Amino acid sequence: MATAAPTFEFVDLFAGLGGFHVALESLRGEGVFAAEWEPTLNALYKTNFGIQPWSDINDLDTDGDIEREVPDHDVLTAGFPCQPFSKAGDQMGFADTQQGSLFFKVYQILRVKRPRRFILENVPNILKHDGGRTKRKIIEMLHSLEYSVKVEHFSPHEFGIPQVRDRAYFVGSLDGLSRFEWPTKHSGPTDITSVLRRDTSLTRSIPERTLHAIDMWGDFLRRSPASLKMPSFPIWSMEFGATYPYEDETPPGVWDRRPVWGLRQMGVKGSFGQSLECAVDGQKERIPSHASRDSDYQFPRWKRAFIRQNREFYQDNRPWIDPWLDQWKPWEMHSSFQKMEWNAQGEARNIDNFVLQVRASGLRIKRPTTSPSLIAFTQTQVPILGANLTGERRYMTPAECAELQSLGGISLPTSDIEAYKALGNAVNARVVKAIAERLLEGLGNPDSSRIADPEPLGTKHASAASKRTDAREEGASRTNPLRTEPVLVAGRSV
Questions:
Q1: Whole-number mean pLDDT of the chain?
Q2: pLDDT tens digit string along 12-21?
Q3: Which of 41, 44, 57, 82 is labelled catalytic?
Q4: 384-385: strand order across its sheet
Q5: Would you call 259 exposed, middle or buried from its count of C-beta atoms within 10 A (0-12, 13-18, 19+)?
Q6: 82 assigned to active site
Q7: First and final C-alpha spacing in the chain
Q8: C-alpha dihedral, 312 to 313 to 318 to 321, nearest 10°
Q9: pTM of the complete model beyond 0.85
């Protein structure tokens, strides 16, 4: 079947799973260059898109290297590394010599190749990083290349996708942006069941200790009186019965002040009301980890508030909490299982109605309207679906997480943990498409019928993969010198 000829060419830097590629190819763009340093994703990019990516973008050292190796193109896309600007990292920004400086490589390629448009993506904290100076520096540098620049942030849930994952987008044009408008944000409800699959095969069971913790907090919710409003603050069960000092003094301060006796003979108790009439080393084992860090002589206000609120909550609810403590003995569990975050205020208290996630801050319980934000998950952080959502408690599969990134039609890493990590670092293709279709006016008039498409990209797996394959078969044979052998795309040999 004949396919429409591409209307513009693009490059995909820091390509990852290829979210930018999926979005721009759906708007009749043709990828002519990609760069991805992670070996598994580098190989997978060729499998999915027929392009062998450049490996280390830093090897494009000089202007001459860029002029020679990077083809001319109309649109540059880059989800440059976000860790230096993320609240979850050290926030070293441009001072991060390994990753923070990579924006300057994007700048160099823009300066040498002069594409007419660009889309850059990063964490939203980049807009506030270093008091706003990082954002201003980026915009000033792009203006110096004569690009008009606009900046906005979007989350997939604002496009009907059940995931809250805010990201900042910089768009630029050499032709001005006076006619450019950001896409309209979706205000309707979302539901995680829209991306769940009933025919999935489970590759990893939930550990028994995790299931035990879920049962424990499920029983906590069942025991709580219906008339009781569940706390909005995190529940720290280790503070139930604790009386150690935390307002004007802290355990580390006492240990420094009284190195021999410590908290002995002060009439105070540790986690779960444990006695502190023991040696200092023993006391340190009976004080919660959030209150026993060396030299932590004054707790921040938020921590003091959580400790106070949990102790008051316990005193007000001892008649039903004490039997729960006696049955479940949470002090025998890992500290992350001793805490719970209830993010479903007003809902029926059946834990199997919800999406669960084990975090260092505790077992987080979320409404099934959205998934936890996809990040580079560790093995334990993958969202768990309650039994009433899927028929049994299970982890969300990589394929379901791919739907949350609008990447349901591509092949993923064979290792689940590598797939979760890659999806956590991916750009959402539906969000990019919504931004790009308005930015690309004048580059070849992408099919306007696609603009009204309300569905996330990739939800129609077979048709999406088939359309990409057909377009690639024709285009790669004509223009892509890197494609020299058959590859497997979404289960098909092309």
A1: 86
A2: 999 999 999 9
A3: 82
A4: 235-236, 339-343, 362-366, 355-359, 384-385, 394-395
A5: exposed
A6: yes
A7: 15
A8: -150
A9: no
